[in-house]
Design a protein that fits this description.
The structure is a single chain. By secondary structure, the chain is mainly α. It has one domain. Helices cover about 90% and strands about 0% of the residues. The longest helix has about 140 residues.
């Protein structure tokens, strides 16, 4: 059974003849009560401190849990952003490759069209040259034929005159 400091102060000890010296016992009881009172107050202060610290601990644990939750959310968001950025980068690269293929195909098509046009122009040039040769050959034959006729005519005229 524990006694409070106040209870110790009010304890009345029985008296006997030849017992303890009353003043000394009263003084000792006063010191014990005073010391116990200090311990009692200190214990109450410590209980208050424990309650305050437990409350602070609870608050700190809640903050820690909130921070942990926030950290996990931030990590998840960072992972999602990284994944989204990777997907977007892959999409951009794929679009660039497709565009490059389209540009290369268009360039190849243009190159083939240009080659076909060059072949057509070369064939046309060969035809024109052949036509000019034929024209020039025909003109030369005509000139030579006319020249031959012109040479024959004066002789025929001389032959008729003679």
């Amino acid at each position: 059974m524990s006694l409070t400091p106040v209870e110790i102060r009010h304890v009345k000890l029985g008296r006997r003849p030849l017992g303890y010296e009353r003043a000394a016992v009263d003084h000792l009881l006063e010191e014990v009560a005073s010391s116990f009172e200090d311990v009692w107050r200190e214990r109450a202060d410590l209980r208050d401190e424990i309650e305050r610290l437990e409350s602070e601990l609870h608050r700190q644990r809640e903050i820690e849990e909130a921070l942990r939750s926030t950290l996990l959310s931030a990590e998840r968001m960072a992972d999602e952003l990284r994944a989204r950025a990777h997907r977007e980068a892959d999409l951009i690269v794929e679009e660039a490759r497709a565009r490059a293929r389209d540009v290369a195909a268009a360039a190849e098509s243009e190159h083939e069209r240009t080659r076909s046009e060059i072949r057509r122009l070369q064939a046309l040039e060969a035809d024109v040259r052949a036509e000019y040769r034929a024209f020039l050959s025909a003109a030369l034959e005509r000139l030579e034929g006319e020249a031959a006729i012109g040479r024959d005519q004066p002789q025929q005229g001389r032959n008729q005159a003679a």
